[in-house]
Every structure is written in C-alpha cells, then in structure tokens.
Amino acid sequence: MSDNIFLIIAVISLFIIIIIIVRKFPVLAVLNVENIPGEKEASAKKAIIKKRVDRDISKLSGLFANLWLKIKDRFLSFVDFSEKKLKKVKSNYKKKKISWSEKEKLIKDLFSKAQNDLAE
Hints:
Number of helices: 3
Shape: rod-shaped
Distance between the termini: 126 Å
Oligomer: single chain
Order of helices and strands: HHH
C-alpha cells in the first residue's frame, strides 16, 4: 500500500515538473546566453587570451624566422667559401703538370729512399 502511495506521489511530481517546463519552454527558447553578464565576461576573457596567444606566437615565429635566415646565410657562405677553395686547389693541381722523365726520376728517388730506410 505504501509503495503505491510513493509511486503516485512520484508520478504527480513528475507531471508537475513537466507542466512547469512546458510553460517556461518559450522563455528558455528566447533566452540569449550572450547577454548574461557572466557569459560576457567569459567571452571577453577568452578574446583577450586569444589575442595574447596570437601575439606571442607571432613574436616567436618572427624570432625563428630570423634565426633560420641567419643559419641559412652562414651555411651558404660556408658552402661558397668551400667551393672557392676547392676550385683554387683544383686549379693549382692542374698547373703542376710534370713531364714523364721527371716522374720517372721522382719514382726512382722514392724507391731508393725506401730501400735505404729498409736497409737501416
């Protein structure tokens, strides 16, 4: 018996809650959340934080871009310097052409030095 009374009270309470919600539903549908002062403050805070983050990211990207340009310039200057040095060495090597007789004499001198060193 008491279970039936509790069930009836629960159903009536649920029915009253539904009636209140149905009556207030048009007011809830028209309610503009953006006009609530707390929501205005939250949206303003979000906008300020977003601006700060964007500003900080733009500063960091500028620093990284400058760093990248400096590294690239140094690397290119190193490559250019190395290329010039190699061309100079190549031109010096091409200039030192030795005749066949001089090569034979140089080889014989090297062999004689090697034999003397082995004998010692």
